[in-house]
């Protein structure tokens, strides 16, 4: 339920008093808005309130949340020499301590009602924001870097990977019970560029996070890789060391299953805009989705984030339908 809070009136109330990053940086507020959807709905998990862009902030970049527009970097990376401006010695337990504090507080406040998910943006997705300076349809500035400055791109992607590994390990130590990595901009790369500039780093992250946790005597947690529009690389994502592959609504459930094989868990993939439909229709869409994915090795979810104008009652219809139809299917099997 990415960016879940936006459609809730109680979240908007908190946002009237506090800026977006103030909520992220204040553990009590981050905890409160994480719990808001849990109080309202029969959700099976909570995702810690934060944003993928706290990592570029920790690297020293300024990020503003512009109302009605989204995140904006006043000084994006323009050329390779700008990499020198980035902080090289980021320590997640210090520079992103507020996220760990929010996770620990939220784990306590959840009192075991449901598990808590930690997350990070994946290296290519974060690099694209840092070069574009905000959202972009074409990602042409960021893609230009890959073609014109491949070495500097790898340097930046490796720096991001090192920070993300430390960040995710710390989130588990602070109490996160599952980790999700968002490769939201997978779709603008073709398979060749994705293999070169995204996959090696995604593999490094899953391998190193698990190993670091084991080395510190911690049991590794399941990890989810969500690649938006990642049709071109589903098989490769399935082999990149994650237990769960998240899929958006543009991929047929049966095709996703064929591409990732029988042993991984799939997550997704209702079109978030289906929540504009009537509650009866939402029930029908959910039933169809569950029949296609089946109820085993599967996490029912939307295929991407919700929009601010969506009706909370329609999300309730989605969640209740997931529980009702999956219980039906299980009872008849
Ligand atoms: C998991 C998560 C995210 N953001 C937020 C959460 C917290 C959990 C939740 O509330 O569900 C809060 C979260 N993040 C944001 C909001 C809205 C801000 C507000 O108005 O209060 C919220 C609640 C702002 C935000 N932050 C971002 C955007 C997209 C910008 C673009 O490319 O055009 C936007 C609009 C970047 C972002 N942020 C995130 C992603 C990955 C998922 C995805 O693909 O959507 C991305 C790409 C992840």
UniProtKB/TrEMBL annotation:
Which positions carry the signal peptide feature in this UniProt record?
A: none
Which Enzyme Commission numbers does its entry carry?
A: 4.1.1.37
Where does this polypeptide localize? Cytoplasm, Cytosol
One Pfam match, by short name?
URO-D
Keywords in alphabetical order, please.
Cytoplasm, Decarboxylase, Lyase, Porphyrin biosynthesis
Taxonomically, the superkingdom here is Eukaryota
Which reaction equations make up its catalytic activity? uroporphyrinogen I + 4 H(+) = coproporphyrinogen I + 4 CO2; uroporphyrinogen III + 4 H(+) = coproporphyrinogen III + 4 CO2
Q: Which residues form the Uroporphyrinogen decarboxylase (URO-D) domain?
A: 117-133
Q: What is its main location?
A: cytoplasm
A GO BP entry: heme biosynthetic process
Q: Which GO terms describe its cellular component?
A: cytosol
Its annotated pathway reads: Porphyrin-containing compound metabolism; protoporphyrin-IX biosynthesis; coproporphyrinogen-III from 5-aminolevulinate: step 4/4
Keyword Transport in the entry? The reply is no
**The keyword Cytoplasm appears for this protein:** yes
GO terms for MF: uroporphyrinogen decarboxylase activity
Q: Provide the family line.
A: Belongs to the uroporphyrinogen decarboxylase family.
What's this chain's function? Catalyzes the sequential decarboxylation of the four acetate side chains of uroporphyrinogen to form coproporphyrinogen and participates in the fifth step in the heme biosynthetic pathway. Isomer I or isomer III of uroporphyrinogen may serve as substrate, but only coproporphyrinogen III can ultimately be converted to heme. In vitro also decarboxylates pentacarboxylate porphyrinogen I.
NCBIfam families per record: hemE
The record's note on quaternary structure and interaction partners says: Homodimer.
The name on file for this protein is Uroporphyrinogen decarboxylase
User: Which species does the entry assign this protein to?
Assistant: Ridgeia piscesae (Tubeworm)
The organism that produces this protein has a lineage beginning with:
Eukaryota, Metazoa, Spiralia, Lophotrochozoa, Annelida
